[in-house]
Write a structure and sequence with these properties.
heterodimer, A: Sulfite Oxidase, Chain A, domain 2, 2 domains, B: mainly alpha, 2 strands
Chain lengths: 256, 218
Amino acid sequence: MSNAGKTTTSRPGLSEQSTRQIELIERRLFLQRGLSLGALSLLSGCAITEQDSVQRILDNMSYWNDRAQAAIFDPRRLAREYTESAIVDPFPFNAYYSEDEVRVVDEKSYKLELSGLITSRKPWSVAELHALPQFTQVTNHICVEGWSAIGKWGGVRFSEFLARVGADTTAKYVGFKCADDYYTSIDMATALHPQTQMTLTFRDQLLPPKYGYPMKLRMPTKLGYKNPKHIVAMFVTNTNPGGYWEDQGYNWFGGS
Amino acid sequence: MATLNASAGVDWIRIHPLVVRVTHWVNALAVLIMVTSGWRIYNASPIPIFGTWRFPNEITLGGWLGGALQWHFAAMWLFAINGLVYLVYGIVSGHFRRKMLPIRPVEVLHDVQEALRGRLAHDDLSVYNAAQRAAYVTLIIVLVVLVASGLAIWKPVQFQPLADLMGGFQGARIVHFVAMATMVAIVIVHIAMVAMVPRTFPTMFTGRARRIVAGRTT
């Protein structure tokens, strides 16, 4: 009776019921959406956690590879030296920016700052660096991307410079800051390698801006991204300073 | 076979030792990671003599060069250690000698032709035919070449004599690439053959295969 009454008597009654039904449906839909949103966030949360743990494994493997490479690195093994006819011309430009954005460092205002575990922290001018004993090398520059190019670099043996400024060579790392906001760091064993060079010339000419004027670090035992250009500051430390690419995922040791 | 009758029985025989099964699947995973991340690394600087062609990024692993390098240099340990376990086992246990030898070119040619005609017999899965033996041994050699050329690319200064064998760093890249392409080709044929003889697939998990044997009443 009452049911029949409700369905037949009045439109308002019916519309009231259907309104309620619509409300219920909406609520159900809202709950469903809420649930699916919750489920989605749970899922994505799960995915994010999974991604994090995979990334953690990859990072740990990269640390492991740092140690493996340090063990493989032979401080007495020299990278091959080539004849000058093997030099690649033009030598490729490579940086995290394009060639038209190369920083031009002014010699007059330039100073190489030293800090950290170094006793003589007097800043160095370009002329003072050029006044130090120099050597040249014709070696292969290997980029992490896969290309390689032979060039000729001249400059100061880094191990001699470190001795001259009284660096603590029992420390673990040497860090570099560059005029182009690049930064990187190397292990002390590589810093002391005889071919590791504070480079001031390229092909017997003053190091051009695109190759790192006024000074870059050249290591034929490491990949290109470990060779910082336009160095304005260096420091000796026992805390790994990381690097521009290294902090984004490139292997820190980067040895070749 | 004509004498097969109702009293014929089914024999379960062990055809793949546990070490082979485990290293097979670990290797499959490691190779998948190595190949897909390797393609991404290749894309950063294609080998000049191969032109500017690149692998579609969608089928690569790592998202960018740095990510691909992380995958590649993590999975290389899995790939190399697993491969070493397999090689040592294969040599010491006599597995290689029993199952991979002999390899006679005439037989290989014959069995490849039979396979192409779809007439290759697989009555006894415990015995590899000549085409299989040749393919598996080639694959093992190619995997060793991949590790050696990979070491030369990773450490062209520390392992300079090894890199020199391949014509230096760039030569080692070409060797690594050609070995990869050969391996992928063998794997494609391998998967196609499994698809054609599907009962070989579960044997790589269970290690067992059914061999139909004639009954006693012959």
